[in-house]
Specification:
two-stranded antiparallel sheet, about 0% helix, 3-stranded antiparallel sheet
Length: about 70
């Protein structure tokens, strides 16, 4: 585990979920379409746990960790 998401791109069916697994190094997840209806909720700074997000709206959801951008 490092400072990037793997895999970088995922195809999720409408209503599907993605599980973000956070190692000891803290990360967060911010979706870059906050004004788009249906965008998943951001994940606050988290470590040593997993968090799931549901994708109920069709779209391309770009996301990043603002602690480790890029």
């Amino acid at each position: 585990p490092g400072t990037s998401f793997s895999p970088a791109n995922v195809l999720v069916r409408q209503g599907g979920q993605v599980e973000f697994v956070f190692p000891a190094l803290a990360h967060n997840v911010t979706f870059q379409q906050p004004t788009t209806a249906g965008a998943p909720a951001a994940i606050p700074t988290t470590s040593n746990q997993s968090v799931r997000r549901s994708f109920n709206t069709v779209g391309d959801w770009t996301y990043e960790c603002t602690i480790h951008p890029g």
